Amino acid sequence: xxxxxxxxxxxxxxxxxxxxxxxxxxxxxxxxxxxxxxxxxxxxxxxxxxxxxxxxxxxxxxxxxxxxxxxxxxxxxxxxxxxxxxxxxxxxxxxxxxxxxxxxxxxxxxxxxxxxxxxxxxxxxxxxxxxxxxxxxxxxxxxxxxxxxxxxxxxxxxxxxxxxxxxxxxxxxxxxxxxxxxxxxxxxxxxxxxxxxxxxxxxxxxxxxxxxxxxxxxxxxxxxxxxxxxxxxxxxxxxxxxxxxxxxxxxxxxxxxxxxxxxxxxxxxxxxxxxxxxxxxxxxxxxxxxxxxx
Length: 294
What we know:
The protein is an alpha/beta fold. Helix content is 43%, strand content 23%. The protein contains nine helices and twelve strands. It has helices at 3-16, 31-46, 69-95, 111-122, 143-152, 181-196, 218-228, 244-254, 277-285, and strands at 21-26, 49-57, 102-109, 127-131, 156-160, 172-176, 199-205, 233-238, 259-263, 266-269, 272-275, 290-293. Strands 3-2-1-4-5-12-9-6-7-8 form a ten-stranded mixed sheet, sandwiched between helices. Strands 10-11 form a two-stranded antiparallel ribbon. Helix 3 links the parallel strand 2 (49-57) and strand 3. The longest helix is centred in the first third of the chain and has 27 residues, at 69-95. It is globular, with a radius of gyration of 20 Å.
């Protein structure tokens, strides 16, 4: 068997072992259709089960202090639940038209509790599909939930910019490589998609003080690793920059990438994870879907 046939067989095997449970975040807004379209395309490609996670936020008790606060919270909560029932019915009808097996699960709770419940749900799925929670005011209310799933869910997130529909074919994926655990996790979580793409390009930003190749020597090892998975990848070294996210996005546009794969970086503050600057910049500025993992 020649090398091309071996690579094709290996890529087919990687896809066969790919995503079998895809979880998509739903909130009853128009962006549900965008998220469903991306999630369904992935589920169809890998013959996966698609679960819609309908999140319905109850009012924050802390905002309704005082003598009449309890009654106000009860009334508003009842109204939110009734609206959630209507959204649930619409989503159930929508999922009945899917091209794959699917179901709707509903989470209904106060904000902080809802975020933890979403992370729990994400742990049993292979991939969580949601919206990039920055750059659009109506999506920023979900930023704490997306960040909680990103840092505590244990799997990759496929995050879609507002209004960006899936492309018909998965041609090119750009992997933003840094010699870190987060980048390694992102590549591991993206392996099924990388195996399905026609072209994979590895790029890293040159780091000053790390020799002639600026720390890019490891790209050869990552490319060889992907090759053993049947994934042929090209490599590229980007100039040192104070804005690595913008550099990576420019490279994605240059090669006409359909998806960006990148590690998600952050730091702890008061025992909570906070996104790093480059990760935030990429999520805020990207007009392409991003597969991230921490």
